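Reopening this one. Same input as before:
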Amino acid sequence: MSTSRESTATSPAWHRTILEDREKALKAGKVTVSDWEQVKKRVKKKVS
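Same output, byte for byte:
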């Protein structure tokens, strides 16, 4: 659900830069992504 406050909010320029850098790294194969369920399982395993 979107509110008018969310639709008018703007992100700082540094945030866009970070997102672009992460996208480039993903496309270059330097990083990977994980399914959220897999991440939760890994975290639970590490903390228990």
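So the earlier flakiness isn't reproducible anymore. For the record, The chain has three helices and no strands.
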